[in-house]
Amino acid sequence: MAKKFITCIIVPNASARLHKLRIPEKALYILATVGVISFFVATALGFTIARMAFQISDYAQLEAENKDLKIAKANLDMKARKLDSKLQDLETRSETLTRILDSDKSLKGIKTAALAPAGTGGAKADYSTEDLIRNSGSALDLMKDRAVQLETKLTVLEQKVTFREGLMRATPSIWPVKGAIG
What we know:
The structure is a single chain. By secondary structure, the protein is mainly alpha-helical. The chain has helices spanning 25-102, 129-134, 136-170; strands spanning 5-10, 19-24. The protein has three helices and two strands, in the order E-E-H-H-H. A two-stranded antiparallel sheet has the order 1-2. A hairpin with an 8-residue loop joins strand 1 and strand 2.
């Protein structure tokens, strides 16, 4: 079987000599196939590059959002620490007031149940700062619970102090008359 050739004639200009280019038919089909495959590869590569560019854009946006969230978390942690410090200060003051009132001789014979509603008193659970920071999702809820418990405890202490103040006003502290009592 004879080889088939395709002849391309190249004319550089009207007065120049003609150039003939003989290409075997199989080589032309191979070049066409390589060209089509190259086109699809280039198209796929273009889409891949475009997708990567979008991912880089999304990544930059996520990095900025992550940075903002880290700053917000740091601020929240700082506020939680400040709130915990204030709560600890209130607990210390509450314990001090409780000790003073418990050691008061004028209140020894009086039932404290008459001073406060049933079920009020100290904290039901004690949470450390480390526990609160570790569980930062529920830390504020725990601190709010501690604040409510302290508020209740301080209300009871306030009632005791008010009662004691009234008792002290009604109790004479000086001798009613000068001279000998007979």
